[in-house]
Write a structure and sequence with these properties.
The structure is a single chain. It is built from twelve helices and 15 strands. Strand 1 and strand 2 form a beta hairpin. The longest helix is centred in the first third of the chain and has 27 residues. The structure holds S-adenosylmethionine. The site of S-adenosylmethionine has 22 residues, from helix 5, helix 6 and strand 9.
Length: about 400
C-alpha cells in the first residue's frame, strides 16, 4: 500500500527500507560494479562495493530469494565470531547507508513513513558484556543482545502456552484492520499476528531495532518511544502490550494514549506479570530469590519505572473510561514445583525464563542500587539454587 502511494522505495522505519523493484535499489545505490568483481548481476541481486581494492562490501538483494542465496554463499560471514568482528565496520557502513538515504530523501527519491531519528539506532550501548538500547539510552533496564532476544522469543512461547496457544484474549473478531503492538521486542508476536490475520495492518514499535527483516507484508516496525506523543495517523481496532513491566515512568498515561488512539469499539489488551514474586506459604520468605525480586522492585522505585504496574491496570482502565474491562490473573510457578501437568509445564518455561533474565538484571542492581559486581554474582548464585529447589513455592502473578 505504501509503495502504491510513494513509489519504489519506502522507509518503513528509521533503520528499515522497503524496496518494491530493482529500480528501487538503483535509486539508492546507483549502477553497481558487481560484474567487474565476478558477481553475477541479475534482476534480483546487486552488490555494492565501497572501493576496488576493498574486501568490504555491502551485499544487497532485491527479493527474499536473492537474499537467502547470498546468505548461503556468505554463510561464513554470519558466524558469531565473524559478526562480532564485523560489528564496528558494519555500524559505520550503516551510518553511511542512512546518510545516503537522507540525501535520497532530500531530493524526493525516498518517502519516509517514520519519524526521523535523532541518533543512530544501530549504535548499541555495551555494559558488563551485554548490549542495551542507544536510542533514548537508559530508559529500559534490560539488554537487547541476541541472548536477550532469545529469551524474549522463548517468553513468547511460554505466554502462548499460558493462553492455550492464543495470541490474544480480547474478542477482536476475524477481520481486525489496524493493530498496534507497543514495545514489540523481537516482533515475534506482531509477525505471528500478521500471519494469522491477513486483514490486519500490524505496526510494532520499540526503542531497540531488534526486529527481523523478512516479515509478512502486512507487518511494519518502527523505532519509537511510546512515552513520546503518539503520532499515528490511524486509529487502531486493537492495541497490544505484553511484558511491559518497568518500561514506563507513567504507565497510566500510556493507557490513556492507547485509549485516545483506539477506534470506536476497539480493544486494548495488556498481558503483564508483576514483581515481587509471591508465595502462598512461607517457603519464599528469607530466600535469595525473594531478595533479588524485591531488589528489582526497589531499583524500579529508584529509576521511577515500577515493576508492579499490572496490579493497577484494571483500576486505571476504569478511571480512564474503558468499557467492559476484564481482568484475568494467572499464577506462574517459578519451577515445576506445583502439581498438575499444565502448572508444571508453565513452571518449567518460567524457570528457564527467570534463569536467563538473572544476568540481564546485573547492570540494574549495580548501577541503580550500588551493589558491587561480585556481590550480585553471589546473590545470583543463591537465586539459581532457590529456583532449582522445588521446596520454594514461589510464583509470579500474570
Ligand atoms: C520484556 S520486552 C517485551 C517484548 C514484547 N512485547 C514481547 O512480549 O515479546 C519489553 C520491550 O519494551 C521495549 N520498551 C521499553 N520501553 C519502551 C518505550 N518507552 N517505548 C517503546 N518500547 C519500549 C523494550 O525495548 C523491550 O523490547
Amino acid at each position: 500500500m505504501q509503495h502504491e502511494k510513494y513509489g519504489n522505495v519506502v522507509r518503513v522505519a528509521p533503520d528499515e527500507l522497503s524496496y518494491m523493484t530493482t529500480d528501487g535499489w538503483r535509486d539508492i545505490y546507483g549502477e553497481t560494479p558487481a560484474a567487474k568483481y565476478g558477481m553475477k548481476r541479475s534482476d534480483d541481486i546487486f552488490a555494492y562495493f565501497f572501493d576496488k581494492q576493498s574486501t568490504e562490501a555491502i551485499i544487497v538483494s532485491a527479493n527474499e530469494e536473492g537474499h537467502s542465496r547470498l546468505r548461503k554463499i556468505f554463510s561464513w560471514a554470519f558466524s558469531k565470531p565473524a559478526l562480532t568482528a564485523q560489528e564496528p565496520p558494519i555500524t559505520e557502513k550503516v551510518g553511511l547507508l542512512i546518510q545516503n538515504l537522507k540525501q535520497a530523501q532530500s531530493v524526493g527519491k525516498v518517502a519516509s513513513s517514520a519519524p526521523s531519528q535523532r541518533s543512530n539506532p544501530f549504535d548499541f550501548v555495551v555494559k558488563q558484556g551485554r548490549t542495551f538500547h542507544r536510542y533514548r539510552e537508559g530508559k529500559y533496564p534490560l539488554p537487547n543482545d541476541f541472548r536477550e532476544q532469545e529469551r524474549l522469543d522463548f517468553q513468547h512461547y511460554f505466554m502462548l502456552t499460558l493462553l492455550d496457544g492464543k495470541l490474544h484474549l480480547a474478542p477482536i473478531g476475524e477481520n481486525p484492520q489496524n493493530v498496534l503492538d507497543i514495545g514489540t521486542g523481537t516482533g515475534i508476536w506482531a509477525v505471528e499476528f500478521a500471519d494469522r490475520y491477513p486483514s490486519a495492518n500490524v505496526i510494532g514499535t520499540d526503542l531497540s531495532p531488534i526486529q527481523p527483516d523478512f516479515v509478512p507484508k502486512n507487518c511494519f516496525f518502527e523505532i519509537d518511544d511510546a512515552e513520546d506523543e503518539w503520532l499515528f495517523n490511524e486509529r487502531f481496532d486493537y492495541i497490544h502490550m505484553r511484558a511491559m513491566m518497568t518500561c514506563f515512568a507513567d504507565p497510566r498515561s500510556i493507557l490513556q494514549k492507547a485509549y485516545n488512539q483506539l477506534a470506536p469499539g476497539g480493544y486494548l489488551e495488556m498481558q503483564d506479570g508483576r514483581f515481587p514474586l509471591q508465595c502462598h506459604d512461607d517457603t519464599l520468605q528469607g530466600t535469595a530469590l525473594d531478595r533479588w525480586a524485591k531488589a528489582c522492585v526497589e531499583a524500579g522505585e529508584v529509576t521511577g519505572r515500577a515493576w508492579n504496574n499490572a496490579k493497577f491496570y484494571k483500576q486505571w482502565m476504569e478511571e480512564i473510561g474503558f468499557e467492559v474491562i476484564q481482568e484475568k490473573v494467572f499464577e506462574i510457578p517459578t519451577s515445576d514445583w506445583p502439581k498438575g501437568k499444565k502448572a508444571k509445564e508453565l513452571g518449567l518455561w518460567f524457570h528457564e525464563d527467570l534463569m536467563d533474565s538473572l544476568s540481564g538484571s546485573k547492570v540494574l542492581l549495580t548501577k541503580t542500587l550500588g551493589y558491587k559486581e561480585d556481590e550480585v554474582e553471589l546473590l545470583l548464585m543463591e537465586v539459581r539454587k532457590n529456583l532449582k529447589d522445588r521446596g520454594v513455592h514461589a510464583y509470579m502473578p500474570v
